[in-house]
Amino acid sequence: MNRNHYFFIFLIYSFSVLIYLGLTKAFLSIDLDLSLVLYSVWFFSFWLVSIDRGLLSPVMFFLLSCTVFVFSRAFLYKIGMEPVEAGIQLGEKSYVIAFNEGFLIALFISIFYVISTFLLKSPMRRFIKNIFFDYRIGIGRYDFSPIFLLFSIFFLALFLIKSYGLIGLVSNSSYLELAGGDALSSHIKYFFIGKNALILYLIFSCNRNKYLYASLLLFFSSIGFGFIGLRGYLIVYFLLFAYFFSLRGIIGNKSILLAVASMVYVSSVIMEYRLGFDLYSGVWDVAIKTIHQQGATFEVLYGVVNFSEEVNSCVESSYRVSSSVDFGSCVDRSRGVFWEYGGFATSFFAEAVYLGFFYSVIYSVIFGFFLAMLDRLSKLQRKVSSHSLVPSLLLFLVLPNLVYFARGDVNDFIFKTLISLILIFSLRITVKFLRT
User: Fold this and answer.
1) What DSSP designation does 140 have?
2) Does residue 80 come out as left (phi exceeding 0), alpha (psi in the -120 to 50 range) or beta?
3) Number of Cβ atoms within 10 Å of the Cβ of 353
4) Which positions ≥6 away from 108 have C-beta within 8 Å?
């Protein structure tokens, strides 16, 4: 079968599952085992239609974010781990309904991804190719990229040094109390100042390996997040570096899996470090509990689905989630979880469910199109040297948001992609103006 046949089969499967989930939602005939099977088939079939992208690709980052941060909880529940760790518990049926609500949104995104892939291969193919180009902005013969690179290195090093200096504080204090203040976060601004300077370096530089060097620099400096107990940033920037490193064609699937396993272990070490006591009793325990801890994002989805009236009384009812309301805190309070510090935060899936069917479909359409565009550009990029196309800049800017989208708000990935596209259009206009 050719790839178009896989797309067709995937669409038939997806629409069949949508009908099934719609009926089970209407009649409350919910079966967890069947839902897990349907999800597993969806995961592997969705990856199959994009298998030529490899293990490190936008679509795999999407699947990774969905599974690790949200839907892994259902699989762990089947091996005896409690689905809800805090607040009011309503039983398995309410848990499975929440799982299926989130799964519906993932299905919508994947369907619009497939449809958008066909669009990007035909009428919009030339349009997409013409948007992204290699460029260099400068005045005459002067190259300003080394200035921005040095500026970036200075602030990233400052962030790393200040984070290292907080190791003693993290080791000897209550982490949740520290997280409630600004003792661990006041210097994080230096990382993002350095990252913005690095983006300017990428815009001006013509170095053929600039994206590899930039992603390596971000990954190395993100170790500072590990020093203060924030493992998410470390993993995100590791995956960004691994993606650009994979473009060189010298990293195989076995190496990728080994690297991911190593990062899981590092993540467990950071967790024990910030808690101040041993949490794991072996390698298998590390793997299971690490996924279970990340899967806490499912708790937000669970709260929105099963305590919708209480959440509504806390969050403004409008066409979007109000920027003045802490959505995650509203969900926590609605389900009887009153944290003194911290909380379950928010989730793309939870906010999409809260907004209702119409808006969740709109967000799924936009998300699916952007995901297909990134995957298309990633495939084109692998056919050429990594410095010769501007897709590298777009991917550099948005891949971290894609990896973490399931734990972000409903606008995070979409807004970041849109802003990045506007930046690239603006750069194109600027280049044309300077060349005339």
Assistant:
1) T
2) left
3) 24
4) 18, 360, 361, 364, 365, 368
How does pLDDT run across 348-387, given as a tens digit for each residue? 999 999 988 889 999 999 999 999 989 888 877 776 654 5
CA 28 to chain centre: 31
Which two tokens mark 105?
A: 């949104």
**How many of the other CB atoms lie within 10 Å of CB of 177?**
12
Locate 314 and state its tokens.
């806390």
* Other beta carbons within 10 Å of 277: 6
Length of the chain in residues, anyone? Answer: 436
Cα distances from 156 to residues 131, 206, 396, in angstroms, run 31, 22, 17
Whole-prediction pTM: 0.85
Measure Cα distances from 360 to 35, 129, 294, 365 in Å.
Answer: 20, 30, 24, 9
> How many whole angstroms separate alpha carbon 350 and alpha carbon 407?
9
Q: Name the one residue in this structure whose structure tokens are 């949200």.
A: 70
Lowest mean pLDDT among 54-63, 114-123, 157-166, 256-265: 256-265
Reading the block at residue 313, the tokens are 């009384």
Going by C-alpha positions, the residue among 149, 151, 146, 186 that lies closest to residue 166 is: 186
For 255-274, give one letter per residue: b (16+ CB within 10 A) or e. Answer: ebeebbeebbebbbebbebb
Q: Is the dihedral of CA 42, 44, 50, 56 positive or negative?
A: positive
Residue-wise pLDDT for 406-423, tens only, equals 988 899 999 999 999 888
- The rounded distance, in Å, linking the Cα atoms of 190 and 197 is 11
pLDDT tens profile 254-272: 666 666 666 666 666 655 5
Which tokens sit at 46?
A: 């969705």
From CA 163, how far away is CA 167, in angstroms rounded?
7
How far apart CA 99 and CA 383 sit, in angstroms, is 38
